[in-house]
Fold this sequence. Notes:
Number of strands: 0
Number of helices: 5
Amino acid sequence: MSQTLTTFDIATLLDSDEAISHYLSQVLADGDNEEFLRAIGHVVKARGMTQIAKDSGMGRESLYKAFAPGAKPRFDTVLKVVHALGIDLCAQPGHLINHSTH
Length: 102
């Protein structure tokens, strides 16, 4: 009996704002920059590359290149796309670092 593997596409699971929020929050918590960029690419794909390109003011090809594996997009590019996705990033105090003064 032979087995056939199917390609897993996480973008198919990112079908709600809540799913996207949980996914990106977990990736950010893990602290891997490259994984975060890949995650943004997955969310862009889930939301529609053409629409996000339009909403961010970027061309589709530029958007594909910016979030291709191994790409190093500029921070302002990431912010444009995050805003086009309707995602708010926020900072909060970390739990591992104690900045109290003694």
